[in-house]
Amino acid sequence: MSFSEHVEQLALEKAKIMYSFMGDEVPTLFNRKKWKGKIIGWAIQDQDFRARLLRFVDVLPTLKTDSAVYKLFQEYFSDVDAIPPELRIAVDRLSRRTDLDRVVPTILKRALDSLAAQFIAGRTVADALSTLHAFRTQGLAASLDIVGEEVLSDDEAGHYVNRYLEVMNVLGPAARSWQDMPLLDADDRGPIPRLDVSLKVTSFYSQLDPVDWDGSILSTSKNLAPIFRAAQEQGVSVTIDMEQYYLKDVTIEIFKALLLDHPDFEYPGIVLQTYLPETAADFTHLAEWARKHDRRFGVRLVKGAYWDYETVVNPRKGWPIPVFLEKEKTDLHYEQLTKVVLDNIDIIRPAFASHNVRSLSYAMAVAEDAGLPKNALEFQMIYGMAEPVRKAVQKMGYRVRAYIPTGELIPGMAFLIRRLLENTFSESFLKRSFFDNTGIELVHSPQLDESFVQPPASVGFMNEPVTDFSRAQNRSAMYDALATVEENLGNNYPLIIQDREIFTDETTLSINPARPEQLVGRVSRANRDQAREAVDSAREAFVAWKKTSPQERADYLFRAAAEMRKRRFKLAALEILEVGKTWKDADGDIAEAIDYLEYYGREMIRLGQATMPGAYPGEENLYFYEPLGVGLVISPWNFPIAIPTGMVSAALVTGNTVIFKPSGLSSVCGWHLAEIFKTVGLPPGVLQFVPGPGSETGEYLVSHPEVDFVSFTGSREVGLHIVSVAGKTEPHQKGVKRVIAETGGKNAIIVDETADLDEAVRGVLDSALEYQGQKCSACSRVIVVDSVYEDFALRLQRSMNSLRIGPTDKPWNFFGPVVDQISAQKIQKYIETGIKEGNALLAKPGPENGFFIGPHLFADLPLHSSLVREEIFGPVLVLLRAPTLESALCMANDSRYALTGGVFSRSPQNIQKVIADFDVGNLYVNRKITGALVGRQPFGGFRMSGIGYKAGGPNYLIQFMHDRSVSENTLRKGFAPSL
Amino acid sequence: MSFSEHVEQLALEKAKIMYSFMGDEVPTLFNRKKWKGKIIGWAIQDQDFRARLLRFVDVLPTLKTDSAVYKLFQEYFSDVDAIPPELRIAVDRLSRRTDLDRVVPTILKRALDSLAAQFIAGRTVADALSTLHAFRTQGLAASLDIVGEEVLSDDEAGHYVNRYLEVMNVLGPAARSWQDMPLLDADDRGPIPRLDVSLKVTSFYSQLDPVDWDGSILSTSKNLAPIFRAAQEQGVSVTIDMEQYYLKDVTIEIFKALLLDHPDFEYPGIVLQTYLPETAADFTHLAEWARKHDRRFGVRLVKGAYWDYETVVNPRKGWPIPVFLEKEKTDLHYEQLTKVVLDNIDIIRPAFASHNVRSLSYAMAVAEDAGLPKNALEFQMIYGMAEPVRKAVQKMGYRVRAYIPTGELIPGMAFLIRRLLENTFSESFLKRSFFDNTGIELVHSPQLDESFVQPPASVGFMNEPVTDFSRAQNRSAMYDALATVEENLGNNYPLIIQDREIFTDETTLSINPARPEQLVGRVSRANRDQAREAVDSAREAFVAWKKTSPQERADYLFRAAAEMRKRRFKLAALEILEVGKTWKDADGDIAEAIDYLEYYGREMIRLGQATMPGAYPGEENLYFYEPLGVGLVISPWNFPIAIPTGMVSAALVTGNTVIFKPSGLSSVCGWHLAEIFKTVGLPPGVLQFVPGPGSETGEYLVSHPEVDFVSFTGSREVGLHIVSVAGKTEPHQKGVKRVIAETGGKNAIIVDETADLDEAVRGVLDSALEYQGQKCSACSRVIVVDSVYEDFALRLQRSMNSLRIGPTDKPWNFFGPVVDQISAQKIQKYIETGIKEGNALLAKPGPENGFFIGPHLFADLPLHSSLVREEIFGPVLVLLRAPTLESALCMANDSRYALTGGVFSRSPQNIQKVIADFDVGNLYVNRKITGALVGRQPFGGFRMSGIGYKAGGPNYLIQFMHDRSVSENTLRKGFAPSL
Question: Where in this chain does the entry annotate a coiled-coil region (chains A, B) (predicted)?
């Protein structure tokens, strides 16, 4: 009999024994005689109800008043299509009561408490102690986890450290005083700690991000050191939980760093997720590392709890899904790794965490086959779930450890939701066993159904994925690019007119705002004569370019996109040095530039098809677009590649010829863009690169009668000036100039009482401070509803305070300089006003050298303050307090701008209200308000924020064209060909 | 045996006899051993080839040079998909020759001559005489028709009269000298004329149009009188041909009038078409009339030759198709009318015109059954067709008359094309007999296949049909409406602000430009205070109106459309009196207004649906539109209902509130529009009616900071002024004003050497002179290629000169006053310049009273003349000569305007070139350049002709809105509901 046949046989035997021990017992959550079981049952049967339930449970603990609970309950459930009959009866019965607004909240909160108690050990250390004690009397070991909010600041990370220390310092000694229980307190090699704590690395460093690989490892392991020391002192084992895939590699590195830092600590452990194909290699790597360093550690083998998250977040970024899509593959991988883990038992303390009888019995079988005693391994299960399974394993004489979180309900919610997801997942073992009542036939070797359909490959436009800096090769590519670009700084860049490169005597110096002494480049400046030449050249080239087919024009864009992909890291590196973007912001800018090229190319192919309105015999109508003529593109420095790429490519692909005048602050980036178009063979004269001062070159070009349109992105003042200049039509001008302008914003985010503050603080922080607030979409006002104002303000202030400031070529600096001295001075003035007029919750200085201004948060400002009303374009955030959502909306709308806005809320009604009434071009719900993606969130505002239709949207290109109608009478001598 | 059984039996016997006489003979056109038969065969088998062939034959005689023939031949046939193999061989053989450019034209012209000779008796009267003589020797009688160009002027009609007189005065005496042939020269009642002439009423009066019912009858019958007199003198019979259905009723009336005018003329005849269901009633009517007046006349019963035309033109106008769609129904109707005609033989001289053996034998059978001698009836067939059938009928002893046209090839082309259509029509008897080789089984009683599929009812937007003034009830409805409106002239009209009617002391007097002493109405004038109030009211109403659903807003438009339909004639009558439109122009304006309401309503429902860009898990994106705010609509007087309806309804339906300032010259019309919206319940404040002087009220409103957009149609000067005012943004203004403007045009039509001059002259005339040229789309330059310049100029000049001028409430005046004294003076100045600078081919004065300026045509003007360059907005047309199409295009494009343009050409390449290179918003091919239809020819220009996307097109409404994006992150605690 082969190994596998033998193990299969053994596993089946074990399973039979387990089933016999389980008998008819049903886990609490599947007991349909009880309400919890009923609700789980409904959620299993109805996806819509499941979603509502999860969302309602998520927000419920946050709600502070009965009326809020009652209102939200109605919002979530009053329009349910199909309420289960049993629930309907209960609701009907209830609805006869007149005090519903009191009764319903009471019932709901009681239900929530009961649900929480099912999974969470209690709020305090004392609660936890009594839970652990109760476990012990049931013969159960425990791993304690402290649930936590998302750690957004150093303070919050510190708080976490303290709570873990408290747990260990209180429970460690307590555990030592417990009576000895051999099965729990020792394995085959001797005594083991009586208590295990599980922790997540993200709780210990708010700036943890693999983009800053070394810094993340260093800071996190440094912050975790006291816990490891305490664990060692108190005889507690520590298991590092595994979270999202994005953090997997860095988590493993942190784990390794911790082991090296704590050479004498014997009981470290790590979790490995078998839904990741990569885990097999990770284990091999860890095992080799352990052998090399002569260390032994625990492995908790799990299936993985972030499946929903991974399948949502990765495709959203355009990244591959890192998890098995098929549950059976995960199960099979679990068995394969079970064998591998047990094969390495010399360096591993194995723990198998599962509720799946097959997975458990398979582990027992492999261990038995390997001649291991029962106490050489342990099984781990989540407290509150799968009780019959847990008891059966215990009865079989194995050590079972319950995984149990302790802490408050709000921070525990993520854990709770994961459990509800798990229990209501249609393929889960528990659901199939105890809801579908499938018996031992579930227990078989995992079968791969190869017919499983992969999601179809998408066609058409797809956003260019941002770079995954959790991958080492991407980080080193960026380091290499930075080095290369830095070596080549200080070059001279010419104008490009027709096919000539013109080096002028007068030049603009572009410098690194983080190191003003570093010259990025010396860029030629066009005078009036050269500007006129550029117009003539564009006019001349227009004749042929207009007649180039839309497909052919689009092909230039696609080739430019391909070229940008090749130069991706170098372009990003240049942005980092020229305008002070962070790695991720710079990378995102290139991805967006590629998006514009790919999107507008496809859009032009779509719009290039004439339509045939009406279907009447004897009449052939055509409706199609033609270019406007010669366009002037004036682009800003803050998205130094993406924005000009969008503006230039839109103007070009629609058949116009273009004079491109980039901002002087990013004109080296601008030159590279022009050069890319040259590289891909754009005919001479179709695109001229004409940098120069706005007051001279810009003004001249805007008023030139042969310029047919101006596409501008920049400040409101300049935008309005262009509009008024363009509004004057010269006597001999052929047409009225069209102006397409994206200007400023004074964008607000509203945070209501139902908001998830973890998300809200992070969202506001990113919106306000990414790229130092120098985005037209940036949040500069956050309007918080009274009841959550204080909490929010504190967390936000701490979070802002935790940002690392410095030159952004170092990936550990998430916050860089502002773009130049003038900007810095302007922002500084606002800060001074803020300090005078309001209350500076945070006023953080930046480094001395470079144009650094740290993050600032102001509260209690009068509504007429310039900080509340004017666009600052820097890292200055205004916090406003509103009594209600309505008043928050009023404040939010009280602006001349209408660009972006946001709301953090979990009230469906509030969300609808904000969508309807918040006058902004781009509204974001429960996410940051920056980072609009081409094709998905067409971007642009109205009022003083812009003129025209949204960039990256279906109407954008139309603006660069006029429409034409042709109607042919096909009737000749009474005869018309049929249609 | 019943009548029908007996007749069926008899008919079958006759048919058998005919078939036996026919033997194996094949008509020339179906003789596939000869090239004519081959070509007909290919055309039958290949619809594409058929269309190319017909079009090429149509243009061929017009071409003056070999190179033109060769070029056109290539254009039509070089890209044929499937050339018949036999032709391919011929072509291949030919293509080896090096002198193709000479050989091909020679072959083609020879072929055309041969084809023409097949059908046409010759060019001159002498030719005709010899043909008739030849016929007589073959025992054939004849009906002679003089082919003609479309008659576009009194001169051309006069020319026609002369040619008919010449024919009769030459051929009449000649015929009398012929030897007697009893079968041909007498019927059962005695001698009959030896010659018949056929004629079309349209050839005798260029202004023939049923809208001017009495005038058309009077003038046409007056013009025909000399012919009837000559016929009587020369012993010639006259048959009035039947043309398009639209002219049927008036033709019958003209026929009756002629009979009354010529009481002693014994041989009038008329054609009746059995493809018209109405013909049965027409015959009954005619028969009763004849009995009452004791007259006898000939009836030529035909199937009908305008089937293709009727099935194209009527649906294009939204009118019902007046002909049977199924050929079998036409055949059955023919038999039914055969019986009826023969039943009335006491007052009818019956002639059965058909090539269908069944139809012919059925007529023989009915006659025989009725005991009529063979010579009591006659059969008529077209010369050159169905020779075996004709001979068989002759052999059976019946009188056969050949219908034969005489004249030039170009004017004969319409006749020739009808014959080719007939011979290649898949259901034609001849084609089925001689191409499909179906035998006597074709001869059966016509069967109606009830399963014949009717064209599906159209869904969605359909243009409102214009009124068919050939119908008596429509003419009297218009007369009634004019009377009613005229009785109620001179009222006072208030402003409408919010829901208040405000009568001001100062008023604008609106007068009838045709009778300046006639006061149409006294309209209140808003001052600044009232204008401000209107803005406030609109701003207030905006809040609720914005939130009204798109469907609900659209419903107001649909109700307004219904209301307009009810008031249709009264509104048109008002336009006639207030601004001097003709009946048809006024009627078309109301139809267009209804179109805007129906189209924009549907468009808003379409655009009101949010779209969901991108499909990514965990992300819900919405993209939708919202109104801009308060809009100012400034409308012109020249389309006094349609244009303001379009502008107002577009602004309203998109959710904006509107201040509507109509032109002072059409403010009574404007008031009615506002009143209609009030009637259908538009909430107060959503639409304000605020007439007033542009320099004061208009200026104030345009610069008001609370006005978000201006929608303007009018002159370029005012448009540019509005753009420049709107371009200045006030310090406290919320947004940049959007301006949507339709301004002027200096529109050109190009006529190339391949143009069909009948169509070109008519198209240019209508484009230039409809509504006295007071349309922004009107043609004011016609650029004619050298080789056709003289012909074209002469015909155009004569055609323009034939227009009847006078007050347009009289439907016989196709040309009315210009709108006011100022306009008249301005136009007069251009005329004076024209006389100085160029050559006035026509300078026709108008009546003294009223603001009349007759049509003017100028040639030989220098290109820099103001007449060539400036918009005149009156009945002044400039004729330009161009050596080539390329230079014509250059001239056409040499304008600051780019609104409409046209080309008359039958060269596919030239048409493509003009489409590609003629810079106009609306280009029309082979039709007039005015009268764009909503939804079919979206309307608007660029350069100095307008700002924005086309009215009545898919992008128009978008201009009144901005777009919004909402992006919701639906991921909560790692869970997102599936999409």
Answer: none
Query: Would you call B966 and A925 a contact, using CB atoms and an 8 Å cutoff?
Result: yes
- Tell which of A60, A595, A966, A970 to mutate to test the B interface (max B CBs under 10 Å): A966
Residue pair A358/A331 in contact by the 8 Å Cβ criterion: yes
Catalytic residue among A310, A387, A575, A776: A776
Q: Which CATH number fits domain A3-20+141-415: 1.10.287.110, 3.40.50.150, 3.20.20.220, 1.20.1250.20?
A: 3.20.20.220
Chain B residues close to A726, C-beta within 8 Å: 727
Q: Closest-CA residue in chain B for A916?
A: B547
Cβ of B727 under 8 Å from any chain A Cβ? yes
pLDDT in tens, A889-929: 999 999 999 999 999 999 999 999 999 999 999 999 999 99
pLDDT single digits (tens) B402-454: 999 999 888 888 888 888 888 888 888 888 888 888 888 888 888 765 544 44
A522-536, B525-539, B581-595, B613-627, range with the lowest pLDDT: B613-627
Distance from C-alpha of A807 to C-alpha of B69, rounded to nearest angstrom:
76
Judged by CB atoms closer than 8 Å, whether chains meet at B975 and A417 is answered as: yes
Task: State residue B78's pLDDT score.
Answer: 84
Catalytic sites of B, residue numbers:
742, 776
Bridge partner list, A927: none
Q: Which two tokens stand for residue B65?
A: 């040079």
Among chain A residues, the shortest Cα distance to B961 is held by: A949
- CA–CA distances in Å: residue A623 to residues A227, A884, B889, B903: 71, 50, 21, 17
Chosen for mutation from A308, A724, A967, A971 (greatest number of chain B CBs closer than 10 Å) is A967
Write out chain B residues lying below 8 Å of A953, CB-based.
Answer: 613, 623, 963, 965
pLDDT at A459: 62
- How is residue B827 written in tokens? 């136009």
Sheet containing B900-904: order of strands: A619-627, A961-969, B922-925, B900-904, B747-751, B779-785, B876-882, B856-859, B839-843
Q: Does B147 touch chain A (CB under 8 A)?
A: no
Is it the case that residue B639 has pLDDT exceeding 80? yes
Cα distance from A55 to chain B (closest Cα, Å)? 7
Residue B854 to residue B844: CA distance in whole angstroms = 5
The string of DSSP codes covering A820-878 is: -HHHHHHHHHHHHHHHHHSEEEEE----SSSS----EEEES--TTSHHHHS---SSEEE
**A624 part of contact set with chain B, CB < 8 Å:** no
For residue A452, the model assigns a pLDDT of: 42
What are the boundaries of each domain within chain B?
3-20+141-415, 35-114, 493-506+520-743+958-962, 747-944
Distances from the Cα of A16 to the Cα of A361, A435, B801, angstroms: 9, 20, 108
Q: Do B974 and A306 touch (CB under 8 A)?
A: yes
Per-residue pLDDT tens for A719-746? Answer: 999 999 999 998 889 899 999 999 999 9
The residue ranking higher by pLDDT, B73 or B412, is B73
B315 touches chain A (CB under 8 A): yes
Q: Residue A506 in 3-state DSSP?
A: coil
User: At the top level of CATH, which class does the domain B747-944 belong to?
Assistant: alpha beta
- For residue range A645-671, list pLDDT tens digits in order: 999 999 999 999 999 999 999 999 999
* Residue A742: active-site member: yes
A-B C-beta contacts closer than 8 Å: 277
**A975 in contact with B at a CB cutoff of 8 Å?**
yes
CATH no. for A493-506+520-743+958-962? 3.40.605.10
CA dist A113 and A471 (Å) reads 42
Tokens 């538009």 map to which residue?
B682
Question: Within the 733-792 window of chain A, which residues sit less than 8 Å (CB to CB) from chain B?
Answer: 734-736, 738, 741, 756
